[in-house]
Amino acid sequence: MGHLTPFLRIASMLLRRNCAVTLITATPTVSAAESSHISSFLHEHPQVKHVGFQIIQLPHSKQDDPFYLQFESTRRSVHLLHPLLSSSSPPLSAIFADFFVASSITSVSTKLGIPHYLISTTSVKFLCLLAYLPELISDPAKFDHSFTEVEISGLTPFPISSIPPPFKDPNHLFTKTLLQNSRALSKAKGIFMNSLQCLEAETLEAVNNGGVLSHSLPPLLPIGPLELYEIKTEKGQYMTWLDRQPAESVVYVSFGSRTAMSREQIREISKGLERSGHRFLWVLKSSKVDTEDKIQLKDLLGDSFLERTKNKGTAVKGWVSQPEILEHPSVGAFVSHCGWNSVIEAARRGVPVVAWPQHGDQRLNAEIVQRGELGIWDRKWGWDGDKELVCGEEIEKKIREVMGDEKLRKMAKKVGEEARKAAETGGSSEKVLSEVLEFLQK
Ligand code: UDP
Ligand code: UDP
Q: Per-residue DSSP letters for 188-222?
């Protein structure tokens, strides 16, 4: 969903600017959330042409992450698209593709004689790390204990502990797929970034004005925060509950669409929330893929917790409309894994974040949140291969800190104002997209 959502948002931004849009999706999808969002998007935008193309399934083992397997299968199936697209009427004028297919989309766009742009679903900082990946991996000594930082010439160095552990293993599926794509980034006409000047000015400027990583990256095109698109669904009970809470009083807790917490960690979060005394809206997942997530809320949390906290909080299992939650005036803070979409959604309204990164790009994203004064981050909290239990008392402390910090609240609101300015007509992000569309029209 972290990849599909930005694509649907961009598709709807293009529709609003009178473009004809063909949406190409890989079939079958991994999660139920993906297929239901694709269906309702198409239902509400009947003018969109849909190409659902059957991807070739790869042999795999049980340990492989189903989402990464899907990325790799899609990457290897993209050549099948050419015949499906060559007879498009009206003919296509450009392809906007996910960076997970960067390596294979080039030959399709070349054959069609049209440019392709990539859409990045991560931060500028992490994209730079991806562009640098071939170099990083070519020298295993860079992972020696003597190195504590990753130094990409022209960029502020960052701790080696922030790079995803799979990068240390060139045979890891995640690393192999990204490496292939990394080598092809420069073939794109540009990369759309769902990012904000105020959060990533330094990195954006280093790449676009300083030529940092110039052999590996085309121009970066910041168009964040992406405009939201509306899905007309019934109002969730959690929204009616939010309506009844005082302004900025609720801590919203969610770790995105594919991150499940262990039973032990869920218990500690429940302690932290209860002890903090603050109101909360907590979205729980117990399996990575939603179709496998069958445990009931009361079996995860226990009846007594739910009973004790019924006047203070709401726990939800299943899909919620996160953008709607984050836009709600009752929400005062967001405990987040820092998936990049979540970060930018928090930035839109300036909701202060407690960063709790879990995998992949999320530690680099958390650093951006902290430096950009959108939130706080305790680097000692483990992640990925090094996931120590974070105890309830620590969680309580962080929640009290974020809810009590007036200065942070103000700073986060400032980020929200910047985000609004960027997206409005004539704003920096809106201009970038308009310029690309003007170019394509010529
Ligand atoms: N999301 C949502 N409801 C949920 C879980 C996720 O609306 O119950 C959305 C969230 O708003 C975001 C996307 O799904 O747009 C998740 O992307 P993100 O990059 O934050 O994290 P990921 O799920 O990829 O780890
Ligand atoms: N990963 C990621 N984002 C996610 C989930 C996983 O980037 O939302 C990466 C992460 O770096 C991890 C690898 O994919 O090492 C495999 O993920 P999985 O969750 O299977 O690993 P686990 O944490 O269970 O060892």
A: SS-EEE---HHHHHHHHHHHHTT-TTTTT---EEE
